[in-house]
Amino acid sequence: MRKTSYAATFVAVLAILIINILSSRLPDWLIAKYDIANTHITVRYGLMQRCESSTISIPGPSKGRLEYADYECRQFPLRVQDKCEKENRLFCALWTSAQYFTELGIGFAGMGLVALVIGVSTHSRRRRVWRAVAGLVILHAVFQLVTFILDRFPGFEHAKPGVGYVLNAVSWVSGFAVGAGVIITGVAADRGQKWAAGNRSNTPVQGSRRRLYKPVQNYGSNV
User: Fold this and answer.
1) Distance separating alpha carbons of residues 178 and 180, to the nearest angstrom
2) Tens digits of per-residue pLDDT, 117-162?
3) From residue 79, how far is each of 66, 67, 85 by CA, in Å?
4) What does the alpha-carbon distance between residue 160 and residue 151 come to, in Å, rounded to a whole number?
5) pTM over 0.85
6) Nearest Cα to Cα of residue 29 among 179, 196, 150, 140
7) To 10 degrees, the CA torsion angle through 184, 123, 140, 169?
8) In 94-191, where do the E strands start and end?
9) Count of helix runs (H) and strand runs (E) in the chain
10) Cα separation of 139 and 207, whole Å?
């Protein structure tokens, strides 16, 4: 593969990694809203945090209204508060697994960047490293897809996707696209197609020597 192809892949994988890190840290993968009497509650669920904002509105003097707002974040899920040892055991296990899967995906994306840096250092490595890069990027995408699926837990039908969830989708879709692009370009380079291989493409050599074999005549004396 060309160096420019590896450079473009490096930029793409770096962007995917940044998106992945942002999505894993944002506390708004799923957003649920409730209205109870005079209270409006918004709960935001992230992979590692649960943030709840509540606004209480009550009639006030002179036909006005009094409002009280509160906002609180905590680690999520917790064993006691979220009943992880009883009826929510399966949910907590799946949500925690999603955390591990997204961290693994970040790790594979980082390994892909390292493979790119090491692989382009020499010509011989540059011809082979695309296989490792493609595999690592696709593994990253697979783990992010698993996280995406796990977070659509049946108990969240009422919740809507937030920014973190959308960024996760962008991350794994982009990962599959980049991995497929690397595979297509790498296979084309191995076959000698110039658009992918550059100067090392398999072109016929002009003016090649031809070895000619002439019959050897045996000269003997006539008896």
Assistant:
1) 5
2) 887 776 666 678 889 999 999 999 999 999 988 877 666 667 888 8
3) 36, 33, 6
4) 11
5) no
6) 150
7) -50
8) 160-161
9) 5, 5
10) 47
